[in-house]
TrEMBL record:
This is Glutamate 5-kinase. ATP binds at K15. It comes from Oceanithermus profundus. NCBIfam families: proB. The gene is proB. Its main location: cytoplasm.
Length: 373
């Protein structure tokens, strides 16, 4: 029999959604303190904890005349509410003997290899000190280009980056259901999902919850990324009293997504989980086959189209002629240089660019293959 995921996990990332923490006029202190007590109990059992918490805008609600609507208003509300959210967690977790540290991130922070490594080193040091990092997206400076989309995606990237033993997502949703239970009350919960297939995605609604950006579709996308990275994910009902203790005791709750064997580490794991590639290379069928089946590097002769603008060394998507993702890799050339050498044999690169350069546009050692769909 498979051990209870919470029993086995020594490093735990817990994501708490806005709808879980929100009350009628801002944060619900009773629920927040109840969750903090559960987290403190898990920490007392020797676990390392990382908390990814939404709720900054909800925390600002009591200070606003009306709900924020525009991007500028949402960013201002996040700036107003983030200190309140952090203060609430600091107080609640502090009562359980836990120290906390605030970490604000954007997708841009994790899209650049050096900043990714710095973020990981900081989080590892905090955990070594016995501190609970409390992470949120840096909404105050977000744009569509640098946002994760919602904290479900941020949580799975953090769990992957830290090689967590388990990602727990506490949501207002009880579980994944056959159909949206808000539309069909007879829909049954799915307790375990072995793979996030198109059929599983079809069960989900992309309608967001009452106070958050991410619906069930977002959670399934996060689960697929977590499983791919070798991190199991457990979606649990965050509003349920003593939910973590009850799940740990074996009560049938939520939906569990077991991990696959981890295929990559280091740079290639970063590439596989990259939130924001900077551009795209369209390759011909022969190049796509060589990458997928033979583990070869991508040569200029196989490139058919260049989409976007980037500098040499940037992460890019590689897609086949039908638009299917082949993988992600670091491009040895700037986008304009690839346009000049695309479709040409490697021997012509010095002639076309006026300088010597690598034979490979993307070397296989810096390429993460997308799992076959």
């Amino acid at each position: 029999m498979e051990p209870n995921p919470l029993h086995a996990a020594r490093r735990l990332v817990v994501k708490v959604g806005s709808a879980v923490l929100s009350g009628t006029g801002g944060l619900d202190p009773t629920r927040l303190h109840a969750l903090a007590r559960e987290l403190a109990r898990l920490a007392s059992e020797g676990r390392e904890l990382v908390l990814v918490s939404s709720g900054a805008i909800a925390a600002a609600t009591p200070q606003l005349a009306r709900p924020p609507r525009t991007l500028a208003e949402l960013q201002a509300a996040a700036a107003l509410g983030q200190p309140e959210l952090m203060r609430a967690w600091q107080q609640a977790l502090g009562e359980g003997g836990l120290r906390t540290a605030q970490v604000l991130l954007t997708a841009d922070d994790l899209s650049e290899r050096g900043r990714y490594a710095n973020a990981r080193a900081t989080l590892e040091r905090l955990l070594a000190w016995g501190v609970v990092p409390v992470i949120n997206e840096n909404d105050t400076v977000m744009t569509e280009e640098i946002r994760f989309g919602d904290n479900d995606q941020l949580a799975v990237l953090v769990a992957s980056m830290l090689a967590a033993d388990l990602l727990v997502v506490l949501s207002e949703a009880d579980a994944l259901y056959e159909r949206d239970p808000r539309e069909d009350p007879r829909a049954r919960p799915i307790r375990r999902v072995e793979a996030v297939t198109p059929e599983v995605m079809a069960m989900a609604s992309d309608r967001p919850g009452s106070a958050g950006r991410g619906g069930m579709r977002s959670k399934l996308l996060a689960a697929a990324k977590a499983m791919e990275a070798g991190v199991p994910m457990w979606l649990l009902p965050g509003r349920l009293e003593r939910v973590l203790a009850r799940a740990q005791a074996g009560e049938a709750l939520g939906t569990f997504f077991p991990a696959r064997a981890r295929r990559y580490g280091g740079e290639r794991l970063w590439l596989a989980q990259l939130p924001r590639p900077v551009g795209e290379l369209v390759v011909d069928e022969g190049a796509a086959r060589a990458l997928r089946e033979d583990g070869r590097s991508l040569l200029a002769v196989g490139v058919r189209e260049v989409r976007g603008h980037w500098e040499a060394g940037s992460p890019v998507r590689v897609v086949d002629p039908g638009g299917e993702l082949v993988g992600l890799g670091l491009c040895n050339y700037a986008a304009d240089e690839v346009r000049r050498i695309a479709g040409q044999p490697s021997g012509r690169i010095p002639e076309l660019l006026g300088r010597e350069g690598p034979a490979e546009v993307v070397h296989r050692n810096h390429f993460a293959l997308a799992r076959d769909r």
